[in-house]
Amino acid sequence: MVAVILATFSTVSADPDSLQDICVADLASPVKVNGFACKTNVTADDFFFAGLANAGATNNTVGSIVTAANVQRIPGLNTLGISLGRIDYAPFGLNPPHVHPRATEAVFVLEGELDVGFITTANILYSKTIKKGEVFVFPKGLVHFQKNNRNSTASVIVAFNSQLAGTQSIATTLFGAAPPVPDNVLSKAFQIDVEDVVKIKSKFAPKI
């Protein structure tokens, strides 16, 4: 019996299977479940999104921008267990270390060349340089990053085995939380002075 239970849990690798052909998300519904409630006035536009066709603006502090094509942009993805996205990078831009708690991610390079990597729970870094037409995979829940290593723009398409993968950027999560993580916690964790913690927090302060 124990073996059967363990085998059952080991096969769960994505969002649960849906119980109907479609369940287009009613994003305005006050009902919140593991996913979104289904709406009845479905149209073809619920399964359409044109937002990945063009590059996003990368004029920010890290030099990258993510355009998500998840259930919040494509309501028809509700219960289907997949989503996409596009990431654009300025020259030498960075998609900072982050995790997706609900999905494995596959990256396909459209243009440019990137240094990519992920870190296991044993603190082992697996990294590689990837270029146009190549694919790299980041396992679910592990810290990973992408860095444009050239003085030219780059872009990728990303795929997730979740309708809403979720993203936690490590630096923003720790130094930009509201209410804030106590200074002495971060000081001890990173082995830096409290004054340095305060300085870093000022760069990640939540925008009002």
TrEMBL record:
SMART domains according to UniProt: Cupin_1 (SM00835)
Pfam families found in the cross-reference section: Cupin_1 (PF00190)
GO cellular component, one term: plasmodesma
Gene Ontology terms describing biological process: plasmodesmata-mediated intercellular transport; regulation of root development
Keywords for this protein: Apoplast, Disulfide bond, Manganese, Metal-binding, Secreted, Signal
Compartments, record wording: Secreted, Extracellular space, Apoplast
Membrane spanning residue stretches: none
Residue numbers binding oxalate: N95, H100, E105
Matching InterPro entries: Cupin_1 (IPR006045), Germin (IPR001929), RmlC-like_jellyroll (IPR014710), RmlC_Cupin_sf (IPR011051)
Residues covered by the Cupin type-1 domain: 50-198
Catalysed reaction equations from the record: 2 superoxide + 2 H(+) = H2O2 + O2
Similarity-based family: Belongs to the germin family.
Function description: May interact with bacterial adhesins thereby protecting the reproductive tissues from microbial attack. Has no oxalate oxidase activity.
Oligomer status and interactors: Monomer. In the absence of manganese, it forms tetrameric and pentameric forms which show superoxide dismutase activity.
Protein name as catalogued: Germin-like protein
Organism: Erythranthe guttata
Lineage of the species this protein comes from: Eukaryota, Viridiplantae, Streptophyta, Embryophyta, Tracheophyta
